[in-house]
């Protein structure tokens, strides 16, 4: 078994749509980023790459590369899954936490779980998605942005 952890955070920006866990969330702002800003998927990619000993998302998909401008983060996740499979590893399970004072994410959790499980090529029971607030503290509590944490367990062997 190999374990990795990931973290990402982005600030809100007007005029963008909000994507988390591959799901569009109804909100008046999106997240500022080179890609689509999906912090949950970015944290997950870092956790997977960390468990595989392959660096981080910025190493594989640098924000200085124009081909990743505005890219759907699910495509990045699918590429990370290919990389870990090529290394003889498979996803055991993942545990994700989105940290946001707003918007409320509970109505979207099941859809996130289903989409991420599909991209990870595992059954949904191996994907746990949670959301929490910071009770008004810090940048997420002030509604300035969203953060995400991820833990991934990889196992040796093919899918």
UniProtKB/TrEMBL annotation:
The lineage of its organism: Bacteria, Pseudomonadati, Pseudomonadota, Gammaproteobacteria, sulfur-oxidizing symbionts. It is an enzyme of class 4 (lyase). It comes from the Bacteria. Its cofactor is a divalent metal cation. It catalyses: 4-CDP-2-C-methyl-D-erythritol 2-phosphate = 2-C-methyl-D-erythritol 2,4-cyclic diphosphate + CMP. Involved in the biosynthesis of isopentenyl diphosphate (IPP) and dimethylallyl diphosphate (DMAPP), two major building blocks of isoprenoid compounds. Catalyzes the conversion of 4-diphosphocytidyl-2-C-methyl-D-erythritol 2-phosphate (CDP-ME2P) to 2-C-methyl-D-erythritol 2,4-cyclodiphosphate (ME-CPP) with a corresponding release of cytidine 5-monophosphate (CMP). Its EC number is 4.6.1.12. GO terms for biological process: isopentenyl diphosphate biosynthetic process, methylerythritol 4-phosphate pathway; terpenoid biosynthetic process. 4-CDP-2-C-methyl-D-erythritol 2-phosphate binds at residues 8-10, 34-35, 56-58, 132-135, 139, 142. Keywords: Isoprene biosynthesis, Lyase, Metal-binding. PANTHER family: 2-C-METHYL-D-ERYTHRITOL 2,4-CYCLODIPHOSPHATE SYNTHASE, CHLOROPLASTIC. This is 2-C-methyl-D-erythritol 2,4-cyclodiphosphate synthase. Binds 1 divalent metal cation per subunit. HAMAP family: IspF. Belongs to the IspF family. Pathway: Isoprenoid biosynthesis; isopentenyl diphosphate biosynthesis via DXP pathway; isopentenyl diphosphate from 1-deoxy-D-xylulose 5-phosphate: step 4/6. The record marks 34, 133 as: Transition state stabilizer. Residues 1-154 form the 2-C-methyl-D-erythritol 2,4-cyclodiphosphate synthase domain. NCBIfam families: ispF (TIGR00151). Homotrimer. GO terms for molecular function: 2-C-methyl-D-erythritol 2,4-cyclodiphosphate synthase activity; metal ion binding. A divalent metal cation binds at residues 8, 10, 42. It holds the Pfam family YgbB. It comes from endosymbiont of Escarpia spicata.
């Amino acid at each position: 078994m190999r374990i990795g952890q990931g973290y990402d955070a982005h600030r809100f920006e007007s005029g963008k749509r909000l994507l988390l866990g591959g799901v569009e969330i109804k909100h008046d702002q999106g997240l500022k980023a080179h890609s689509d800003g999906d912090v949950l998927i970015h944290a997950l990619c870092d956790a997977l790459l960390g468990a595989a000993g392959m660096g981080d998302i910025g190493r594989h998909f640098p924000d200085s590369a124009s081909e990743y401008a505005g890219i759907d983060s699910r495509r990045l996740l699918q590429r990370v899954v290919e990389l870990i499979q090529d290394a003889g590893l498979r996803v055991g399970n993942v545990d994700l936490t989105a940290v946001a004072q707003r918007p409320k994410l509970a109505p979207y959790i099941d859809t996130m779980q289903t989409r991420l499980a599909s991209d990870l090529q595992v059954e949904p029971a191996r994907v746990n998605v949670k959301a929490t607030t910071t009770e008004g503290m810090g940048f997420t509590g002030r509604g300035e942005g969203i953060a995400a944490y991820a833990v991934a367990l990889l196992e040796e062997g093919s899918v």
